[in-house]
Amino acid sequence: MSKSLGNGIDPLKIIEQYGSDALRFTLSFLSVQGQDLNIDTKDFMFGAKFANKVFNASKFILSNLKGRLVLDSLEFDDIDKWLIARLNATVAVIDWSFENYKYNEATKAVYEFFWNDFCDWYIEISKINLCSDDFDLQNITISKLIFFLKESLLIMHPFIPFITEEIYSKVMSLKDILALKKYPEVTMQRDFGEECQQFNLFKDFIISIRTLRSEFNIVPNVKINVALKFGNTFQSEKYFRRNEYIAKKLINFDCIFYNENYENMIGVPNVNFESFADIRDFIDTDKELTKLSKQLEKYEKLKNVTLQKLGNQNFLSNAPDEIINFEKLKLEEFDSFIVRISNYISNLKKSSY
């Protein structure tokens, strides 16, 4: 931006178009310490979308209060403890970021917690219980959603103060003021490390089956059979079985098998276990093998080009660190694609016999 060129951004116009929270959140998210910020007026749509996400998520939760009771005393289960641990970790990142003047890191942590953890996972899982015929379970679920919404509004308040205060004090009909409440602190009581680790494995399983569905163009409403293969050292089988009803809703399967009936399925390697899905009836195996072989050849060529670049001493001596790191990340990505595609090809060949 330059005064002489007249291409400066008027913050009042941004507030009028996108809102003050959008202005504040976008600048905080994009402003990296020690670097100039190149920004366009359209970039503030990012903050506006986040504020809209907060409003819509809150609206969904509050709309489900009708006919249900909010309980004062709650007992937290596996999924709740995972979200509490994520909330605790987010507060830790915010504290560290503020102490070190890295406001973009704090804003990123808030964004990832609310959008990814709370909305994409916790609310989606809660919808399963809200649709249950068990009225007591519905009351427990909505009470937990209200609890976590309050906690989320509190940690987001420094970043988007107006919409969080509006939701907290007016929409939720709470008499106290959010701005005067004590900010959450990191505590050991909220550090549910084991539950967090187990849920992350559970997420990996769901994501792997969803990815497999997407890559083979199998629509979500088609039911498939899935399987899990793991060794004797795998500690989360009970956790998976206990939360099987969640996976069934999120990835839409008929049956799930544990360490059996996976021989003719397509596998996806994960950390400490392997996910499988039976998709033979929904694909043309020969066409898929041809397509996958071409993809494998493509990524192997890209990998070789990247390896040659990283093996060039002139490149390593002259290129900026961020460019070198970017090439290394590309190499890891290509390796991941090659492993997954090779695994698909191997499984498809076995299942076609």
From TrEMBL:
<keyword id="KW-0067">ATP-binding</keyword>
<dbReference type="InterPro" id="IPR002300">
    <property type="entry name" value="aa-tRNA-synth_Ia"/>
</dbReference>
<dbReference type="InterPro" id="IPR009080">
    <property type="entry name" value="tRNAsynth_Ia_anticodon-bd"/>
</dbReference>
<feature type="coiled-coil region">
    <location>
        <begin position="282"/>
        <end position="309"/>
    </location>
</feature>
<feature type="domain" description="Methionyl/Valyl/Leucyl/Isoleucyl-tRNA synthetase anticodon-binding">
    <location>
        <begin position="80"/>
        <end position="226"/>
    </location>
</feature>
<dbReference type="Pfam" id="PF10458">
    <property type="entry name" value="Val_tRNA-synt_C"/>
</dbReference>
<dbReference type="GO" id="GO:0005829">
    <property type="term" value="C:cytosol"/>
</dbReference>
<dbReference type="InterPro" id="IPR033705">
    <property type="entry name" value="Anticodon_Ia_Val"/>
</dbReference>
<feature type="domain" description="Aminoacyl-tRNA synthetase class Ia">
    <location>
        <begin position="1"/>
        <end position="40"/>
    </location>
</feature>
<dbReference type="Pfam" id="PF08264">
    <property type="entry name" value="Anticodon_1"/>
</dbReference>
<dbReference type="GO" id="GO:0004832">
    <property type="term" value="F:valine-tRNA ligase activity"/>
</dbReference>
<keyword id="KW-0436">Ligase</keyword>
<dbReference type="InterPro" id="IPR013155">
    <property type="entry name" value="M/V/L/I-tRNA-synth_anticd-bd"/>
</dbReference>
<keyword id="KW-0030">Aminoacyl-tRNA synthetase</keyword>
<dbReference type="GO" id="GO:0005524">
    <property type="term" value="F:ATP binding"/>
</dbReference>
<dbReference type="InterPro" id="IPR010978">
    <property type="entry name" value="tRNA-bd_arm"/>
</dbReference>
<dbReference type="Pfam" id="PF00133">
    <property type="entry name" value="tRNA-synt_1"/>
</dbReference>
<keyword id="KW-0648">Protein biosynthesis</keyword>
<keyword id="KW-0547">Nucleotide-binding</keyword>
<dbReference type="InterPro" id="IPR002303">
    <property type="entry name" value="Valyl-tRNA_ligase"/>
</dbReference>
<keyword id="KW-0175">Coiled coil</keyword>
<protein>
    <recommendedName>
        <fullName>valine--tRNA ligase</fullName>
        <ecNumber>6.1.1.9</ecNumber>
    </recommendedName>
</protein>
<dbReference type="GO" id="GO:0006438">
    <property type="term" value="P:valyl-tRNA aminoacylation"/>
</dbReference>
<dbReference type="InterPro" id="IPR037118">
    <property type="entry name" value="Val-tRNA_synth_C_sf"/>
</dbReference>
<feature type="domain" description="Valyl-tRNA synthetase tRNA-binding arm">
    <location>
        <begin position="284"/>
        <end position="340"/>
    </location>
</feature>
<dbReference type="InterPro" id="IPR019499">
    <property type="entry name" value="Val-tRNA_synth_tRNA-bd"/>
</dbReference>
